[in-house]
Design brief:
single chain, alpha+beta, 2 domains, 8 helices
């Protein structure tokens, strides 16, 4: 039992060679960024070392995976988020950002099962508008709070501009959810006609 836990905790070592090839030491085989991406999705922990220098380059490889996914059209990172993130490089609050992002993503990951449940309900024709609106409000409040904490001048913005942005985002989310509900209702109607 102890050996199993030790194996689960010990990260797999990946070596990156000068020719940009990645070598998985656990499987004794070369892998691609797609393989590493799948390992992350499967919850397999790994570290990447430069084969020549021995430096830990895990962060840059994971960032490279994100860039590859974004270039394929898997757009998870909104432009405004990227701009905010870039603006914190070299800022006096830079050291707080990683901890905040880690905490936020941890909370999001813990709530993902609840979100999947909402999506299953949506596909059954039961669109949980209130739950999505509530999650949208909570996410917006979390982001607003973070911006206030990180940027002292954030609270000094024009009040009209500051109060309209969350409401506009929530309205846009509500409109998207309503459109999805209409599509689901249309699909459900077509299935009912076929059954007759």
């Amino acid at each position: 039992m102890a050996d199993k836990n030790a194996t689960e905790e010990a990260p797999i070592t990946i070596k990156k060679y000068a020719n940009r090839r990645l070598y998985n030491t656990a499987t004794s085989s070369y892998v691609t960024l797609d393989h590493l991406s799948q390992m992350v999705k499967d919850g397999i922990n790994f570290v990447v070392f430069d084969a020549k220098s021995g430096d830990d380059i895990t962060r840059s490889v994971l960032t490279h995976i994100i860039v590859e996914e974004e270039s394929k059209g898997q757009n998870l990172l909104p432009i405004n988020f990227l701009r905010h993130l870039i603006s914190f490089y070299g800022d006096s609050l830079q050291s707080l950002v990683p901890r905040y992002l880690d905490h936020s993503m941890g909370s999001f990951a813990r709530n993902q099962e609840q979100m999947r449940h909402y999506m299953r309900d949506a596909l059954d024709g039961l669109m949980p508008f209130q739950q999505f609106e509530e999650m949208g409000k909570q996410n917006m409040e979390l982001f607003e709070g973070a911006m206030k904490m990180f940027t002292p001048l954030y609270g000094a913005q024009d009040n009209d501009e500051k109060s309209e942005a969350p409401e506009q985002d929530l309205n846009a989310l509500h409109e998207q959810l309503e459109a999805m509900q209409n599509q689901l209702n249309a699909m459900k109607g077509k299935k009912g006609k076929k059954a007759k």
